[in-house]
Q: What sequence folds into this?
């Protein structure tokens, strides 16, 4: 963090305690939430806390969701960040507030937006393989969807942890816990094709074993993955508001629709609790309801010969 930003944060801390009259614990909570934004800014060399736009902040919120942070916690973080930007306005660091139109997520339980199998196919097939990063992006999206990875797990995936012949990968998830995840033959084929391009990249020190690299031979950031998926969804004509986490939701939903065991899905997603995975059963029940209404012969015939007459 630049010295100017450090000075601003120190001044904001004093402002919370003295001018706002907040307790030490409450002030620390505000600063902790602000630090999450500062780490997000630190991931991108050209970003600054004073230059963030509304779109940048939207990407930050998407990252919070990607990390599995609940809607209630996201709302609290956004509230803290809005407080910080009000402070910047008052202290004449900024003329306009980029958080003005920022909305907090609803804290009620909401089913995650997902993609159909056809939409996944369209998304991946729309990638232009003639571009330098085309094969890499195709391999990344195939892996993201095929294995149901968190975006943080994708960008830290090691080349040495891909077992091509055995068709599984070792993933480092939350709390540095490792898990085995099966990987599809399609994803393996795309990764093999990408490795041909990767061999021609001059890899920076420290990233020798990182599977997916940027053009400079370093690891990709969460923001870059978010941007790639957003841009590709536009090209594919998908109008849904999707993020890397949408691919993970699609993975779980499609497995469940195909009859996979909920406990097996839990293990593949790396969920500590089965209750986290159970949200997908709501999606599955809706899927089953549609299938029954549309395809069950008793429902197809309803309205012609099967009207209930009231007679016994």
A:
């Amino acid at each position: 963090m630049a010295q100017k930003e450090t000075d601003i944060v120190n001044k904001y801390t004093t402002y919370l305690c003295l001018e706002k009259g907040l307790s030490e614990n409450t002030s620390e909570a505000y600063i902790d939430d602000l630090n999450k934004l500062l780490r997000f800014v630190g991931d991108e060399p050209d970003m600054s806390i004073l230059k963030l736009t509304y779109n940048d902040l939207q990407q930050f919120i998407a990252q919070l969701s990607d990390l599995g942070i609940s809607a209630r916690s996201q709302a609290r973080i956004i509230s803290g960040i809005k407080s910080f930007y009000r402070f910047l306005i008052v202290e004449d660091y900024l003329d306009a507030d980029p958080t003005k139109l920022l909305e907090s997520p609803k804290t009620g339980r909401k089913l995650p937006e997902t993609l159909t199998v056809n939409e996944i196919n369209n998304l991946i097939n729309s990638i232009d393989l003639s571009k330098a990063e085309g094969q890499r992006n195709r391999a990344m999206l195939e892996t993201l969807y095929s294995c149901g990875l968190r975006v943080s797990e994708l960008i830290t995936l090691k080349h040495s942890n891909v077992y091509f012949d055995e068709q599984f990968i070792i993933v480092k998830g939350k709390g540095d816990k490792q898990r085995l995840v099966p990987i599809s033959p399609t994803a393996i084929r795309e990764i093999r094709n990408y490795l041909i391009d990767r061999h021609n990249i001059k890899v920076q020190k420290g990233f020798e074993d990182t599977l997916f690299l940027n053009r400079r031979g370093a690891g990709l950031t969460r923001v870059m993955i978010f941007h790639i998926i957003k841009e590709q969804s536009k090209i594919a004509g998908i109008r849904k508001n999707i993020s890397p986490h949408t691919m993970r939701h699609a993975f779980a939903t499609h497995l469940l629709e195909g009859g996979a065991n909920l406990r097996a899905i839990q293990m593949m997603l790396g969920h500590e609790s089965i209750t986290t995975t159970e949200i997908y059963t709501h999606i599955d029940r809706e899927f089953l309801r549609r299938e029954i209404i549309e395809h069950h012969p008793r429902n197809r015939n309803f309205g012609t010969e099967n009207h209930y007459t009231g007679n016994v």
Remarks:
- Strands lie at 162-163, 168-172, 178-182.
